[in-house]
Automatic annotation (TrEMBL):
Native source species: uncultured Eubacteriales bacterium
Protein known as: UbiC transcription regulator-associated domain protein
UniProt keyword terms in alphabetical order: DNA-binding, Transcription, Transcription regulation
Coiled coil: none
CDD domains found in the cross-reference section: WHTH_GntR (cd07377)
A GO molecular-function descriptor: DNA-binding transcription factor activity
Positions of the HTH gntR-type domain: 6-74
Highest taxon of source: Bacteria
GO term, biological process aspect, one: negative regulation of DNA-templated transcription
Length: 248
């Protein structure tokens, strides 16, 4: 319901804002032309332009001369200070998120995987491949490896929109105490480009996580992350704690 004394263009702004958040418009497809928006909302061009100005001011859209007006790609910023869960982080930010199970297999560790997971060659390993999305946009492809010796059975059907860590805590009493992560640039494979809806060359990051429970490795995850939609932030502190010198 319109708010009294509120500019009409703000009602148009609210509706377009809702459509953007719901993924009706994505960053690869231009918004409808101004004349089409005028006809749809039954308002003047100046009213539509007022709504578009507000969207641009708030960083939600961008105009490309000769091509049209596009939704601005929303970048997820991840602080690398403490142990974090992708699902929990997006929940806390109020960002819509989704997850698709691409594949699940029980595999035998080859030499390379056995070295990564510090286990004997041939060990039974759960491999879970997931496509993670935020605001309806593909964000990362995750390959998670879990030792069957610690997790006897994984119900992949229960995981599309659930936190894997919460599932493992609930079912197996998992209590991870620390993790190590490495980051490096990578070119996505043809299959990863397809899953990530990458139609032009973009940088990706390979994020490898090694998670431990009482100093025993219980999870190894490789994530191929779109570099244009996800950034990692680290605080570097130059303060040092020097012992106080008491005058004598």
């Amino acid at each position: 319901m319109p708010v009294p004394n509120r500019p009409l263009y703000m009602d148009i702004y609210d509706d377009l804002f809702s459509h953007i958040k719901q993924g009706v418009y994505d960053s690869e497809t231009p918004l409808p032309p101004e004349r089409d928006l005028c006809a749809y909302y039954h308002v003047s061009r100046s009213t539509v332009r007022g709504a578009l100005r507000e969207l641009q001011k708030n960083g939600l859209i961008r105009t490309i001369q000769g091509s049209g007006t596009f939704v601005q790609s929303q970048v997820i910023e991840q602080q690398l200070l403490n142990f974090y869960s992708f699902t929990d982080e997006l929940k806390n930010r109020g960002t819509d998120f989704g997850c698709t199970i691409v594949d699940y297999q029980l595999i035998s560790a080859d030499d390379k995987l056995a070295q990564k997971m510090n286990c004997p060659k041939g060990s039974a390993i759960h491999l879970l491949v997931r496509l993670r999305c935020a605001a309806s946009a593909p964000l990362m492809v995750e390959y998670t490896y879990l030792p069957q010796s610690r997790f006897h059975k994984i119900n992949a059907a229960a995981l599309p929109n659930a936190s894997l860590y919460e599932y493992l805590r609930s079912k197996y009493g998992l209590r991870m105490d620390h993790a190590m992560e490495t980051l490096q640039p990578i070119l996505p494979s043809p299959r990863e480009k397809e899953l990530l809806s990458v139609t032009h060359p973009i940088p990706c990051m390979l994020l490898e996580r090694f998670s431990y429970e009482e100093d025993v490795l219980v999870e190894y995850t490789r994530s191929v992350v779109r570099g244009d939609k996800y950034i990692f932030k680290v605080r570097l502190d130059n303060r040092t704690n020097k012992p106080e010198v008491n005058p004598t």
